[in-house]
Amino acid sequence: SVVYAQEFTVTPAGLKDNSNLEKTYVVINTPGKTAEQNYNNAIKYINKTYKSPKDVMKGDVKGEYISFDTHVSNFLIVKNSGVKVVIDANYTVELSFKGDRVKLEVINIDMYNPEVNSKVLFSGGIWAGFPIYKKKNNKLIRPETKTDIEAYFNNKINVIKGYLLEEVKTTDDDW
User: Fold this and answer.
1) 0.85 cut: is pTM over it?
2) For residue 38, with 0-12 CB atoms within 10 Å meaning exposed, 13-18 middle and 19 or more buried, which class applies?
């Protein structure tokens, strides 16, 4: 059997499916699960992960769709002329459920330093904050930042996938 990894890669246009750069989302296969089971497992993930699950939920169509917001303090460190700049992030995840598949898309991503009002951009000019790629020629200029963002979101995919496949123990039977 062939296993397809669901991973994002950072491109000048944003997060893309590593196996198909036309797509801004990844599809997580959940063999043997229904859309309703996937939806319920996604709700478990949100309830176990967030302190105020109701506050992060932005959209909810039972069995079909969920969207939720995430804030990450100290999301990554960007090196700028030898100075390390701490970057926070806000982003929205949309999950759509269809049979034994879940479409995961990260939208509205905002990576910023609140103290100096500078942002990490997927692409931009050198005066536009902290671009990962040069806007003129799409040359990668912040490889560490690219790697850090990919590692974060690919880990997030794996955590959500663990909940969808019920590999994460969500109850403690030994109490």
Assistant:
1) yes
2) buried
